[in-house]
Protein backbone atom coordinates (compact mmCIF):
# COMPACT_ATOMS: atom_id res chain seq x y z
CA UNK A 1 0.00 0.00 0.00
CA UNK A 2 1.28 3.46 -0.79
CA UNK A 3 1.15 6.32 1.71
CA UNK A 4 2.20 9.24 -0.48
CA UNK A 5 -1.01 9.66 -2.49
CA UNK A 6 -3.35 12.51 -1.53
CA UNK A 7 -6.43 11.71 0.52
CA UNK A 8 -8.70 13.82 2.67
CA UNK A 9 -7.93 11.95 5.87
CA UNK A 10 -4.41 11.03 6.92
CA UNK A 11 -2.46 10.02 9.98
CA UNK A 12 -2.49 13.63 11.13
CA UNK A 13 -6.24 13.45 11.84
CA UNK A 14 -6.25 11.77 15.21
CA UNK A 15 -8.79 11.94 17.95
CA UNK A 16 -7.88 14.73 20.32
CA UNK A 17 -8.24 13.35 23.83
CA UNK A 18 -6.93 9.94 22.82
CA UNK A 19 -3.48 10.76 24.19
CA UNK A 20 -2.93 12.55 27.46
CA UNK A 21 -6.62 13.24 27.95
CA UNK A 22 -9.91 11.43 28.27
CA UNK A 23 -10.53 9.59 25.01
CA UNK A 24 -14.16 9.01 25.90
CA UNK A 25 -14.88 12.67 26.63
CA UNK A 26 -17.15 14.28 24.06
CA UNK A 27 -15.57 17.68 23.62
CA UNK A 28 -18.83 19.44 22.78
CA UNK A 29 -20.16 18.55 26.26
CA UNK A 30 -17.15 19.96 28.11
CA UNK A 31 -16.93 23.42 29.57
CA UNK A 32 -14.46 25.75 27.82
CA UNK A 33 -12.03 25.26 30.71
CA UNK A 34 -12.30 21.45 30.55
CA UNK A 35 -11.93 21.40 26.77
CA UNK A 36 -8.83 23.59 26.92
CA UNK A 37 -7.26 21.47 29.66
CA UNK A 38 -7.91 18.27 27.68
CA UNK A 39 -6.41 19.75 24.54
CA UNK A 40 -3.36 21.07 26.40
CA UNK A 41 -2.76 17.59 27.91
CA UNK A 42 -3.09 16.02 24.48
CA UNK A 43 -0.69 18.42 22.79
CA UNK A 44 1.82 18.07 25.61
CA UNK A 45 1.82 14.30 25.13
CA UNK A 46 2.46 14.69 21.41
CA UNK A 47 5.13 17.33 22.04
CA UNK A 48 6.94 14.79 24.21
CA UNK A 49 7.04 12.52 21.15
CA UNK A 50 8.18 15.46 18.98
CA UNK A 51 4.94 15.29 17.00
CA UNK A 52 2.62 18.15 16.15
CA UNK A 53 -0.97 17.65 15.04
CA UNK A 54 -2.01 19.54 11.93
CA UNK A 55 -5.68 18.66 12.29
CA UNK A 56 -8.06 16.56 14.31
CA UNK A 57 -11.41 14.89 14.68
CA UNK A 58 -12.75 16.02 18.06
CA UNK A 59 -14.01 13.16 20.25
CA UNK A 60 -17.57 12.43 19.20
CA UNK A 61 -16.94 14.39 16.03
CA UNK A 62 -18.99 17.33 17.28
CA UNK A 63 -18.25 20.96 18.11
CA UNK A 64 -19.28 22.93 21.16
CA UNK A 65 -19.74 26.69 21.18
CA UNK A 66 -16.11 27.17 22.16
CA UNK A 67 -14.36 24.56 20.07
CA UNK A 68 -13.46 26.19 16.75
CA UNK A 69 -11.58 29.04 18.40
CA UNK A 70 -9.89 26.60 20.77
CA UNK A 71 -8.42 24.58 17.90
CA UNK A 72 -7.63 27.68 15.84
CA UNK A 73 -5.65 29.13 18.75
CA UNK A 74 -3.73 25.84 18.94
CA UNK A 75 -2.79 26.30 15.24
CA UNK A 76 -4.86 23.42 13.86
CA UNK A 77 -5.16 23.62 10.09
CA UNK A 78 -8.49 21.78 9.89
CA UNK A 79 -11.11 19.87 11.86
CA UNK A 80 -12.99 16.76 10.73
CA UNK A 81 -16.56 16.53 11.99
CA UNK A 82 -19.31 13.95 12.10
CA UNK A 83 -21.88 14.40 9.37
CA UNK A 84 -21.75 15.84 5.89
CA UNK A 85 -21.57 19.58 6.56
CA UNK A 86 -18.42 21.36 5.45
CA UNK A 87 -16.83 24.76 4.93
CA UNK A 88 -14.72 27.26 6.89
CA UNK A 89 -15.62 28.51 10.36
CA UNK A 90 -13.60 31.26 12.05
CA UNK A 91 -10.76 30.61 9.63
CA UNK A 92 -10.64 26.84 10.22
CA UNK A 93 -11.62 24.50 7.36
CA UNK A 94 -14.19 21.95 8.54
CA UNK A 95 -14.11 18.66 6.66
CA UNK A 96 -17.00 16.19 6.57
CA UNK A 97 -16.83 12.78 8.23
CA UNK A 98 -19.83 11.04 6.71
CA UNK A 99 -20.46 7.62 8.22
CA UNK A 100 -20.79 5.92 4.83
CA UNK A 101 -17.19 6.90 4.05
CA UNK A 102 -15.59 5.26 7.10
CA UNK A 103 -14.15 1.77 6.65
CA UNK A 104 -15.41 0.23 9.90
CA UNK A 105 -19.02 0.67 8.80
CA UNK A 106 -18.32 -1.92 6.09
CA UNK A 107 -16.08 -4.32 7.98
CA UNK A 108 -17.87 -4.64 11.35
CA UNK A 109 -21.47 -5.83 11.85
CA UNK A 110 -22.27 -3.44 14.71
CA UNK A 111 -21.93 -0.44 12.38
CA UNK A 112 -23.56 -1.92 9.28
CA UNK A 113 -26.88 -0.18 9.84
CA UNK A 114 -25.19 3.22 9.47
CA UNK A 115 -24.14 2.57 5.89
CA UNK A 116 -25.93 4.12 2.92
CA UNK A 117 -28.02 2.15 2.16
CA UNK A 118 -28.15 0.46 5.59
CA UNK A 119 -26.78 -3.07 5.84
CA UNK A 120 -26.95 -5.92 8.32
CA UNK A 121 -23.67 -7.74 7.72
CA UNK A 122 -20.05 -6.81 6.87
CA UNK A 123 -19.02 -6.55 3.22
CA UNK A 124 -15.85 -7.49 1.40
CA UNK A 125 -13.35 -4.80 0.32
CA UNK A 126 -14.81 -4.66 -3.20
CA UNK A 127 -18.18 -3.85 -1.66
CA UNK A 128 -16.60 -0.96 0.24
CA UNK A 129 -15.00 0.33 -2.97
CA UNK A 130 -18.29 0.16 -4.87
CA UNK A 131 -20.07 2.10 -2.13
CA UNK A 132 -17.34 4.75 -2.00
CA UNK A 133 -17.35 5.22 -5.77
CA UNK A 134 -21.14 5.57 -5.69
CA UNK A 135 -20.80 8.26 -3.04
CA UNK A 136 -18.19 10.05 -5.16
CA UNK A 137 -20.69 10.18 -8.03
CA UNK A 138 -23.41 11.59 -5.79
CA UNK A 139 -20.98 14.14 -4.35
CA UNK A 140 -19.86 15.29 -7.81
CA UNK A 141 -23.46 15.63 -8.93
CA UNK A 142 -24.25 17.76 -5.88
CA UNK A 143 -21.08 19.84 -6.26
CA UNK A 144 -20.13 18.88 -2.72
CA UNK A 145 -17.18 17.79 -0.62
CA UNK A 146 -16.48 14.46 1.03
CA UNK A 147 -13.67 12.61 2.75
CA UNK A 148 -12.75 8.98 3.34
CA UNK A 149 -11.48 7.42 6.56
CA UNK A 150 -9.29 4.30 6.57
CA UNK A 151 -7.93 2.98 9.85
CA UNK A 152 -4.41 1.54 9.63
CA UNK A 153 -5.25 -1.20 12.13
CA UNK A 154 -8.11 -2.47 9.93
CA UNK A 155 -6.21 -2.29 6.65
CA UNK A 156 -4.85 -5.68 7.58
CA UNK A 157 -5.14 -7.66 4.33
CA UNK A 158 -3.76 -7.08 0.83
CA UNK A 159 -7.32 -6.83 -0.48
CA UNK A 160 -8.22 -4.02 1.93
CA UNK A 161 -5.07 -2.12 0.99
CA UNK A 162 -5.66 -2.61 -2.73
CA UNK A 163 -9.10 -0.99 -2.70
CA UNK A 164 -7.63 2.14 -1.08
CA UNK A 165 -5.07 2.37 -3.87
CA UNK A 166 -7.77 1.84 -6.49
CA UNK A 167 -10.00 4.50 -4.95
CA UNK A 168 -7.13 6.99 -4.94
CA UNK A 169 -6.29 6.13 -8.54
CA UNK A 170 -9.90 6.74 -9.57
CA UNK A 171 -10.05 10.05 -7.72
CA UNK A 172 -6.74 11.42 -8.96
CA UNK A 173 -7.55 10.43 -12.56
CA UNK A 174 -11.04 11.95 -12.51
CA UNK A 175 -10.96 15.49 -13.99
CA UNK A 176 -14.17 16.37 -12.11
CA UNK A 177 -12.56 15.73 -8.72
CA UNK A 178 -10.12 17.79 -6.67
CA UNK A 179 -8.39 15.12 -4.59
CA UNK A 180 -6.47 16.88 -1.85
CA UNK A 181 -4.82 16.34 1.49
CA UNK A 182 -6.23 18.10 4.58
CA UNK A 183 -3.29 20.51 4.46
CA UNK A 184 -4.08 21.39 0.84
CA UNK A 185 -7.66 22.15 1.82
CA UNK A 186 -6.54 24.24 4.77
CA UNK A 187 -4.30 26.51 2.75
CA UNK A 188 -6.12 26.68 -0.57
CA UNK A 189 -8.04 29.77 -1.60
CA UNK A 190 -10.16 27.46 -3.77
CA UNK A 191 -11.85 25.82 -0.80
CA UNK A 192 -15.47 27.00 -1.07
CA UNK A 193 -16.47 29.62 1.48
CA UNK A 194 -19.74 28.15 2.68
CA UNK A 195 -21.21 28.03 6.13
CA UNK A 196 -20.84 24.78 8.01
CA UNK A 197 -24.03 22.96 8.92
CA UNK A 198 -23.88 20.12 11.42
CA UNK A 199 -25.88 17.10 10.35
CA UNK A 200 -27.44 15.04 13.16
CA UNK A 201 -25.05 12.21 14.07
CA UNK A 202 -26.20 8.82 12.81
CA UNK A 203 -25.72 7.35 16.26
Verbal overview:
With 203 residues, the chain is α/β, with parallel strands linked by helices. The chain has 6 helices and 5 strands. It has a 5-stranded mixed sheet with strand order 1-2-3-5-4. α4 runs parallel beside α5. 33% of the residues are buried.
Helix/strand/pairing class, anyone?
Answer: alpha/beta
Regions with pLDDT < 50 over 5+ consecutive residues? 1-24, 193-198
The largest β sheet comes out as:
5 strands, mixed
Order of helices and strands: EHEHEEEHHHH
Outline, from the CA principal axes?
A: globular
Extended strand count: 5
How would you name the oligomeric state of the polypeptide chains in this document? single chain
How much is the average pLDDT? 75
Name the helicity range. Answer: 25-40%
Distance linking N and C termini: 31 Å
- Computed over alpha carbons, the radius of gyration is 17 Å
Number of alpha- plus pi-helical segments: 6
Spatial strand sequence of the major β-sheet: 1-2-3-5-4
Estimated share of beta-strand residues: 5-15%
